[in-house]
Amino acid sequence: MGIWQRFKLIFRSKANKALDRAEDPRETLDYSYEKQLDLLAKVRRGVADVATSRKRVELQITQLNQQSTKLTEQAQKALSVGREDLAREALTRKSALTNQINDLQVQHDQLVAEEEKLTLASQRLQAKVEAFRTKKETIKATYTAAEAQTRINEAFSGISDEMSDVGQAIARAEDKTAQMQARAGAIDELIASGALDDASSLNAGDDIARELEALSSQSDVDRELAAMKAAAGGELPAAEQPLAIDAEVDEVIEPVQQITEQPVAEPVERGESSSS
Description:
Radius of gyration: 63 Å
Mean pLDDT: 76
Distance between the termini: 90 Å
Largest sheet: none
Oligomer: single chain
Number of domains: 2
Helix content: over 70%
Structural class: mainly alpha
């Protein structure tokens, strides 16, 4: 196969594919239906033309018959007055008219047959056109429904892909939520077991220590004030009672300060060592 032949083959194949993609069966059916309607209109015009010709021939035959009848009457009158020559001339003309009438009658019969034939063809063609129209509309409706179904399926396919992505995102969110819940539960268990100190309880310890320190400071102020009063009045300061209070306060403050000064990580280590 030569290069030119291959080029023509490739061009035809590409052109056919392009035409197939561009062709709409509904438009093709409508065009075919219009062509059939044009053909039916031509056949009907042919029937009308033949019928017109038949009517014209019938009119001519009627006129010639009237003339023939008139010539017969004239020939009879000519004979009645003894004019045989006029009677012969009238009959000669009548004979010519008779020949014309016979020729027109033959044409009339042919036109009648042609009209009947065209009328039958027109009726058959009209029936075929009506059947084609019904089939055309059915095919168009089927094609339109199939096209709509295809578009719906394509849309559902796109939605399915999107829903798949959404489902994966939901699954990831659920996994993260479960991890956070598990982590929160583990922290609660550690706090409940004492392996991990609660920040709120530590803050509470700090508040107690501050109150005890404030109480100790107030005791020092009271003791100093009592000493000043005793010096001014010449009495010995009542130091026993403040000293007793200070001793009690120190007994309470020392354990609290030991708790607050310890690092947070040490209880976890003691918990791990105890559990081991």
